[in-house]
């Protein structure tokens, strides 16, 4: 009883004394957002780390350190640390929680003659000492990680999409809760006044809440290859920069295989019996379907090249020669689209003005916008990765917003990326 009174007295006057027995603390992650968050799951860390102030500077120690790293075990030849296992990620659903316990022991640098790499001494944390709990998480689902029913998947979190938040606590609190900091409520970007803040998911934030917008990459990509021209296309300059390849003749075949569409063309040459040919290959994102069309029709074909010899951007449009209908249009859309309104008429492709989400990448914060497709009085708005159809008369067209984003600031060469494609579904 006297010992208890003495301990409480020392706490009351601010004495930071290590207790004889460490005081465990429950550390709880609470997802207060409307979308899942993702944290490091390896060794059950939950993306949590503890910092102690040393000479005015925060010092992070490993509260899950293997006991073989302790100085008292440094001379043991039989001590071995267990395998930490494969890296893993834990998904925490909206409103969900995950927790683990810190045993209340601080790991501090020590010394042993048996260890050349240093070792750790243990110190029971004073009950009233202020510590900092840091949570690092990602609102973006990590690419290539498949989660089981428990929300655990093998893989790692990309550093570029990870954000961190902190909270102060003392061991005498017995537990501490931490989670994403939600900004002020909002209904539009104009209501957010902080530097770099935008209104996403009903709150002002400089971060990027979870979304399902696909990242442009190896599988989700639109490319138009350089034409294989054996006389079918006539090349000419396209404005101040770039070239265009135009040809009128027969679409001899259209073959779709492995997400690539290969179009072959032909037309008579100036010499009797001569046949001039050309081919264009377009790669579409995986799983978006195929622009199926039959050969034998008369068409006009136009391929535009921006003239960049290192990383060229191209676009392609093909129309029915008799009706003028757009049969296929595809634009890689880097640093501005190459197809002009006259190339796509009567269809229009326009960018939405307000960002609908974002993604943190190695190049910075990529803001996403909707894409507006229209013809006459009919129109559709598509988010990145979406596709839908419009019916005009007796024909239908399929529209695909591959991606439509722009970096607010970036040092990377491509700041604007808005590839799209659309094609006619019903062919007479």
Layout: helices, strands, pairs:
Layout lengths: L1 H11 L12 E6 L6 E4 L7 E7 L2 E5 L26 E5 L4 E6 L2 E6 L8 E6 L6 E7 L14 E3 L8 E7 L5 E4 L19 E3 L2 E3 L17 E2 L3 E3 L3 E4 L5 E15 L2 E9 L6 E9 L14 E8 L8 E7 L5 E6 L9 H4 L2 E5 L5 E5 L2 E5 L2 E5 L2 E5 L4 E6 L2 E7 L3 E3 L8 E2 L2 E5 L4
Parallel strand pairs: 1-12
Antiparallel strand pairs: 1-6, 2-5, 3-4, 3-9, 5-10, 7-8, 9-11, 13-14, 15-20, 16-20, 17-18, 18-19, 18-21, 19-20, 21-22, 22-23, 23-33, 24-27, 25-26, 26-31, 27-28, 29-30, 30-33, 31-32
Provide the low-confidence segments as ranges: 1-13
Strand content: 35-45%
Overall mean pLDDT: 90
Structural class: mainly beta
Question: Helix tally?
Answer: 2
Label the overall shape. Answer: elongated
Termini separation comes to: 95 Å
Radius of gyration: 30 Å
The largest pleated sheet is described as:
12 strands, antiparallel
Number of strands: 33
Share of helix among residues?
under 10%
What does this structure look like?
The chain is built from two helices and 33 strands. It is mostly beta strands. Strands 15, 16, 17, 18, 19, 20, 21, 22, 23, 29, 30 and 33 form a twelve-stranded antiparallel beta sheet that branches. Strand 17 and strand 18 (243-257) form a beta hairpin. It is elongated, with a radius of gyration of 30 Å.
């Amino acid at each position: 009883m006297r010992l208890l009174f003495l301990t409480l007295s020392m706490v009351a006057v601010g004495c930071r004394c290590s207790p004889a027995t460490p005081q465990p603390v429950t550390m709880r992650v609470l997802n207060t957002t409307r979308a899942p968050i993702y944290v490091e799951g390896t060794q059950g860390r939950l993306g949590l780390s503890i910092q102690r102030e040393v000479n005015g500077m925060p010092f992070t120690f490993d509260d899950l350190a293997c006991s073989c790293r302790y100085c008292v075990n440094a001379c043991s030849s039989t001590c071995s640390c267990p395998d930490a296992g494969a890296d893993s990620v834990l998904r925490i659903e909206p409103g969900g929680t995950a927790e683990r316990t810190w045993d209340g022991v601080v790991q501090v640098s020590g010394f042993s003659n048996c260890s050349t790499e240093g070792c750790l001494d243990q110190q029971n944390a004073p009950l009233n000492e202020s510590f900092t709990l840091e949570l690092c998480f990602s609102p973006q689902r990590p690419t290539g990680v498949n989660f089981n029913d428990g929300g655990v998947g093998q893989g790692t979190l990309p550093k570029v999409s990870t954000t961190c938040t902190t909270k102060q606590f003392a061991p005498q609190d017995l537990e501490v809760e931490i989670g994403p900091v939600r900004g002020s409520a909002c209904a539009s970007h104009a209501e957010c006044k902080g530097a770099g803040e935008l209104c996403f998911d009903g709150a002002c934030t400089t971060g990027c809440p979870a979304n399902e917008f696909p990242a442009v990459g190896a599988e989700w990509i639109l490319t138009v290859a350089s034409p294989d021209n054996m006389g079918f296309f006539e090349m000419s300059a396209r404005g101040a920069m770039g070239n265009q390849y135009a040809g009128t003749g027969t679409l001899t075949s259209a073959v779709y295989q492995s997400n690539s569409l290969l179009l072959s063309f032909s037309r008579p040459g100036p010499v009797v019996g001569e046949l001039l040919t050309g081919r264009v290959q377009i790669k579409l994102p995986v799983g978006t379907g195929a622009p199926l069309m039959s050969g034998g029709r008369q068409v006009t074909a136009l391929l535009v090249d921006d003239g960049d010899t290192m990383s060229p951007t191209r676009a392609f449009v093909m129309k029915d020669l008799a009706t003028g209908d757009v049969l296929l249009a595809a634009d890689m859309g880097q640093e501005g689209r190459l197809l002009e309104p006259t190339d796509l008429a009567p269809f229009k492709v326009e960018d939405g003005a307000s960002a609908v989400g974002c993604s943190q990448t190695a190049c910075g914060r990529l803001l996403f916008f909707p894409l507006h497709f229209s013809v006459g009085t009919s129109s559709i708005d598509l988010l990145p990765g979406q596709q839908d159809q419009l019916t005009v008369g007796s024909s239908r067209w399929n529209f695909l917003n591959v991606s439509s984003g722009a970096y607010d600031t970036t040092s990377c060469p491509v700041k604007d990326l808005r590839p799209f494609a659309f094609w006619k579904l019903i062919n007479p």
